[in-house]
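Postdoc handover notes: sequence design on the structure in folder B. Input tokens:
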């Protein structure tokens, strides 16, 4: 292993930060609220280095690009960012910002997933929202009477083999399904279903669907 460097210094990545692979083989990472791309691409070097993804002029034009909390490269090619207190999308048509007018409550948006139906889910410490294909505004899909306030470093969204979205709550997990239940579209799981009585720090769906 070799440390990835930023101008000769080791690249510092915050707890819970994510990596976003690019189609050209490069990798994106968030460090000190900025997005960096490894400059050397996939070829191995003795001193891997990074360059900022956004130029100073771009950040001057849109200050939110200098206040990035999280990144997600969707399978459709769009790059989603938790930017300042909202959400930004960088794609073929340029930069698009989503805020309260587009259904995004102010907050640190830390996790994203594009599900198999083409819906973009986003999660902050307190909110879960979803953008339907073709829509210009997010909708709130958080479960009622479920606490989502604990600011643990890791906030994850995963999709299981049945197309259900799973994320953590303050007491355990909740799973969204298209089939209505007594708790709306969410099922909740906590210590009474055998989970540890502690916050979930990570979620993973493996290649076999477990």
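Designed sequence:
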């Amino acid at each position: 292993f070799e440390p990835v460097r930023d101008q000769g210094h080791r690249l510092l990545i915050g707890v819970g930060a994510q990596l976003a692979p690019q189609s050209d083989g490069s990798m994106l990472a968030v460090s000190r609220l900025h997005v960096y791309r490894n400059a050397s691409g996939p070829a191995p070097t003795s001193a891997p280095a990074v360059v900022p993804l956004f130029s100073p002029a771009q950040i001057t034009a849109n200050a939110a690009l200098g206040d990035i909390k999280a990144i997600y490269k969707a399978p459709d090619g769009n790059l989603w960012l938790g930017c300042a207190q909202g959400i930004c999308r960088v794609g073929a048509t340029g930069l698009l910002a989503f805020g309260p007018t587009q259904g995004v409550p102010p907050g640190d948006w830390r996790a994203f997933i594009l599900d198999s139906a083409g819906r973009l889910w986003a999660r902050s410490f307190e909110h879960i929202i979803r953008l339907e294909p073709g829509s210009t505004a997010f909708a709130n899909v958080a479960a009622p009477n479920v606490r989502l306030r604990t600011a643990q470093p890791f906030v994850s969204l995963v999709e299981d083999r049945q197309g259900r979205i799973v994320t953590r709550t303050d007491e355990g997990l909740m799973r969204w399904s298209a089939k209505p239940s007594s708790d709306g579209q969410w099922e909740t799981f906590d210590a009474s279903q055998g989970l540890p009585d502690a916050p979930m720090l990570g979620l993973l769906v493996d290649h076999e669907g477990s």
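Context for whoever picks this up: The chain has a mean pLDDT of 87. Don't rerun without checking with the PI first.
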